[in-house]
Design brief:
Layout lengths: L1 H16 L11 E11 L13 E6 L5 E6 L7 H6 L15 E7 L3 E9 L8 E9 L5 E10 L2 E7 L4 E3 L6 E9 L17 E8 L2 E10 L5 E6 L5 E10 L6 E10 L1
Parallel strand pairs: 1-7, 9-15
Antiparallel strand pairs: 1-4, 2-3, 2-5, 5-6, 8-10, 10-13, 11-12, 11-14, 12-13, 14-15
């Protein structure tokens, strides 16, 4: 009995000495994080252009905690592009987002990686940021907004590996250019195609050959110009789009053969 009494006294003393916060079985709390991808100088990247892939990792281990595509619209043009922005005034209401609910029992430092626009491989940009997430303290509403710079350029003509003859010269160089959210270029529009530099850099048989500026056409997003040559060979075309005011840049490449 004496040994039992001593044991109980020691056990009670240990409990009394233990700090109140020493709970080794903290309850996990489901906590929301919302991520949006916004094209630089444009709107949100959503379903209309295939979305942005969001990957959320634990920063210390690299373990993927959640991933998925942003879904929804590009957002309200007036709020995003035309209204002066004030602190705490939301601009993303109804715009594309990816939301995840993470079960965490303590603050976790996250790495958030965004690949966008996800289905346009030649234009896809990887942007990354980091943030703390505290149990029960969601990052919701506007969420975490990650900016995606660039433009999407698709070389439409000449088609890749197109065979043709010199008698078909001049050849049309035609490209489709949009913002990273898919927002359109038109002549004199909100995204003014006449103020964007779109140029084809042409090589023949691996050597620099010609530089051809492309002009905006009546069909939105379309830039084109004729290219004349009297020499057979393998022609490589690199078309770039560049906005000097924002630094947004996009590129696409192709090649064709003239006999």
């Amino acid at each position: 009995m004496k040994k039992i009494a001593i044991f109980l006294c020691v056990f009670i003393a240990q409990i009394a000495a233990a700090p109140l916060w020493a709970n080794t079985t903290a309850q996990a709390t489901t906590t929301e994080i919302t991520v949006r991808a916004k094209a630089k100088d444009a709107k949100f990247i959503g379903s209309s252009i295939g979305g942005a892939m969001v990957i959320i990792r634990a920063a210390d281990t690299g373990k993927i905690l959640a991933q998925g595509l942003t879904q929804g619209s590009t957002g309200d043009t007036g709020k995003i592009m035309k209204t002066p922005q004030e602190r705490y005034v939301p601009i993303a209401e109804g715009a594309a987002k990816f939301s995840a609910n993470l079960d965490i029992s303590e603050p976790v430092f996250l790495t958030v990686e965004v690949l966008a626009p996800y289905i346009k491989k030649q234009a896809r940009v990887v942007a990354q940021t980091q943030t703390w997430l505290v149990p029960g303290k969601p990052i919701s509403g506007e969420g975490l907004i990650v900016e995606i710079p660039g433009m999407v350029v698709d070389l439409l003509s000449p088609q890749t590996h197109f065979y043709t003859g010199l008698d078909k010269s001049p050849f049309e160089i035609r490209a489709n250019v949009v913002m990273m959210c898919g927002c359109p270029f038109t002549d004199g529009g909100l995204w003014d195609g006449s103020k964007v530099e779109v140029t084809a850099l042409i090589k023949k048989d691996g050597r620099e050959f010609a530089t051809v500026p492309l002009k905006i056409q009546d069909t939105m997003n379309t830039f084109s110009a004729p290219f004349a040559t009297d020499l057979p060979g393998v022609y490589e075309i690199l078309v770039y789009a560049y906005d000097a005011k924002t630094g947004n840049t996009g590129v696409d490449r192709g090649s064709f053969i003239v006999k």
